[in-house]
Write a structure and sequence with these properties.
By secondary structure, the protein is an alpha/beta fold. It has one domain (about 1-125, about 135-310): Aromatic amino acid hydroxylase (Phenylalanine Hydroxylase), CATH 1.10.800.10. It has 13 helices and eight strands. The strands form three sheets. The protein has a four-stranded mixed β-sheet with strand order 6-5-8-7. A two-stranded antiparallel ribbon has the order 1-2. A two-stranded parallel sheet has the order 3-4. α7 (about 155-175) packs antiparallel against α8. The longest helix has 24 residues, at about 180-205. The radius of gyration is 19 Å and the shape is globular. The two termini are about 35 Å apart. The relative contact order is 0.13.
Length: about 300
């Protein structure tokens, strides 16, 4: 048995997604941010990381954008073991000021975006089972550290995440100006839905034109952490790929549990940054206050996080 630090409680070793007593204990105490209990990772956890990393590397080399590959190099990730966040941050922080910050699980939407504004990335610390490597509906440390964080080493991309976090604050401030509670809730839910769609089709599932003239490359972290979909999104004739259009993206529903049939292309991270500027402008002009319904649904906790942001 391994002992959880400062609790005096012995628990089984293991940080497997949905099977980690440390996470359940942290949640039961209402702890959103936690310390990474590195000694609790089992050999099976490290084996899962090894397998995930080894099979993704050749696909990254073929399909990932050049900024991601430079990020992988700069982070000096160990292919053989689950990374320590303190080691990741030692390489990451000097480059862009970003840091990976361990969380016990779900972070309400406003708090997540506000963390980005402050150059902090809420990071899942569990890892999927070694016999279920293909897909998880929730993020794990491979998705967050190997999928997201290499992109955070690029200044233009990191600045875009901060700008997106600033948009969330703008949305929360707009909410304060709406006197009718029912109308306030409706408009804020619509803005959250628009922001979630934009984030999904860019940060999570975005494609970009290669600056060296090598066609399309992947920069979305959901694609960069998926062995099957990173190839599918570039090679499959069944995927629709279009230059990004704001009015389309903010009104486009998506499903999380299947390969994406529709993806959008940006020209560069400067282009992406300008799109976030446009997103905030649309927000201020009321163009996001009544976007198309359907997925994603906005849950009550996410809505409250925006409506009561100043009480967090």
């Amino acid at each position: 048995m391994a002992q959880i630090q400062d609790t005096g409680v012995d628990v089984p070793i293991g940080m497997t997604t949905t099977e980690a007593p440390f996470i359940e204990m942290s949640r039961s105490k209402g702890e959103m941010y936690v310390e990474q209990p590195y000694g609790l990772y089992s050999e099976d956890n490290h084996e899962a990381w090894r397998r995930l990393y080894a099979r993704m590397l050749p696909r990254w080399e073929k399909y990932a954008n050049e900024h991601f590959m430079k990020g992988i190099e700069n982070l000096c990730l160990n292919p053989e073991a689950v990374p320590k966040l303190e080691d990741v941050n030692q390489f990451l922080c000097p480059l862009t000021g970003f840091s990976a910050k361990a969380v016990s699980g779900y972070v309400p939407a406003y708090l997540f975006f506000d963390a980005l504004r402050n150059r902090e990335f809420p990071t899942t610390i569990t890892i999927r089972r070694k016999d279920k490597l293909e897909y998880l509906p929730e993020p794990d440390i491979f998705h967050d550290i190997a999928g997201h964080v290499p992109m955070h080493t690029d200044k233009a991309f990191a600045d875009t995440l901060v700008r997106f976090g600033e948009c969330a604050k703008t949305a929360a401030e707009i909410a304060q100006e709406i006197p009718n509670p029912e109308e306030r809730a409706h408009q804020v839910a619509s803005i959250i839905r628009a922001m979630a769609r934009f984030f999904w089709f860019t940060i999570e599932f975005g494609l970009m034109r290669d600056s060296r003239g090598q066609g399309l490359k992947v920069y979305g972290s959901g694609l960069l952490s998926s062995f099957g979909e990173i190839e599918y999104c570039i090679e499959s004739p069944e995927v629709q790929r279009y230059p990004i259009q704001m009015e389309w993206v903010v009104n486009q529903a998506f499903e999380i549990d299947k390969y994406q049939p529709l993806l959008f292309i940006v020209d560069s991270f400067d282009h992406l940054y300008s799109l976030v500027d446009a997103l905030e402008l649309w927000m201020k002009e009321g163009k996001l206050s009544n976007v198309a319904p359907c997925e994603p649904e906005v849950n009550e906790e996410d809505l409250k996080s925006f409506l009561h942001w100043d009480q967090a």
